[in-house]
Amino acid sequence: MEIENQILAVIQQRLRLRMKHLNVAASRVSTESGFNHTFVKSIMEGTTPNVVNLARIARYLDVPVAYLIGEIDTPDPNHLAETARRPVYAEVATALQDLNDIDRMSIRALREVILDMPGARERLEDLERSADLIRQRLPKTASEAA
After folding, report:
1. Domain 2-75, CATH class in plain words
2. Among 27-31, 44-48, 123-127, 142-146, whose mean pLDDT is lowest?
3. Fewest beta carbons within 10 Å, which of 3, 7, 81, 110?
4. In the chain, helix, strand, coil percent, each to 5?
5. Burial degree of 119 (CB within 10 A; 0-12, 13-18, 19+)
6. Structural contact between residues 18 and 59, judged by C-beta atoms closer than 8 angstroms
7. pLDDT at 92 over 90
């Protein structure tokens, strides 16, 4: 119950801040969101809204639900998408770098094992050229992946 009270307190604070920023009354937010004119006031007085109702209010206030519940600190709806993408790009770039490293190790190992086989030098050179072409297309940093 304690965590619910903390979340509700954050919701109430964020609603107050956003309504003040937009210069709009709780009754207007309520009616424009499709509720009875006292709905937001009841949240401010301690009624916990369900997620669907909170989403409707968030849409009217032009903020992500994550902002209203305190998961993010900026009311900018675009911030959430950028924040969500950043770790993925970093993970992709890291994975590509790991693949790059494995590729280099594989070539070294192949070179040691097959250099004495007929046609091995030509095949190894072809493999190295192919790997170089692939490496040139891969992002070298997380910022390039973004």
Report:
1. mainly alpha
2. 142-146
3. 3
4. 75, 0, 25
5. exposed
6. no
7. no
Q: What average pLDDT score do residues 115-137 get? A: 71
Q: What's the pLDDT tens digit per position in 6-19?
A: 888 999 999 999 99
Which 3 state secondary structure label does DSSP give 115? coil
Task: Report the Cα–Cα distance between both ends of the chain, in Å, rounded.
Answer: 41
Instruction: Give the list of residues 6+ apart from residue 122 with CB closer than 8 angstroms, or none.
Output: none
In this structure, what DSSP letter does residue 72 have? S
Dihedral of alpha carbons 79, 81, 82, 88, sign? positive
The answer to whether the beta carbons of residues 30 and 40 sit under 8 Å apart is yes
Tokens, residue 22? 């937009």
Q: What are the residue boundaries of the structural domains of the chain, listed by start?
A: 2-75, 78-145
Q: Give me the long-range contacts of 12-16 (CB less than 8 A, separation at least 24).
A: 12/43, 12/44, 14/63, 14/67, 14/68, 14/69, 14/70, 14/75, 15/40, 15/43, 15/44, 15/57, 15/61, 15/68, 16/44
35-46 pLDDT tens trace = 999 999 999 999
Q: Average pLDDT of 25-30?
A: 95
